[in-house]
Amino acid sequence: MLVTEIKEMPLNERIILMEEIWDTLCHEEKEVESPTWHKEILDERVNLINSGKAKFVSIQELKDANL
Q1: Using an 8 Å Cβ cutoff, are 55 and 49 in contact?
Q2: Which pLDDT tens digit goes with each residue over 5-41?
């Protein structure tokens, strides 16, 4: 199926297609490794937390801050 064909599909059909593709990925036996850049970002965030330059906040705290 080509991208142009997908773009021509009604929205509800594209959502169903996306869900079917996602379902096949979820049941894939082979795991995909996260890219190196993702680990680097996570490591940087852990360092910020450990150094006190950042902190975890709850979803409610974030909502209350009106950011």
Answers
A1: yes
A2: 999 999 999 999 999 999 998 888 887 788 999 999 9
Residues in the chain: 67
pLDDT value of residue 29: 80
Q: Do residue 10 and residue 20 come from a single domain?
A: yes
In a shared domain, residues 41 and 22: no
**Domain co-membership, 27 together with 53:** no
CA-only gyration radius of the chain, Å: 20
Residue 41 shares a structural domain with residue 24 = no
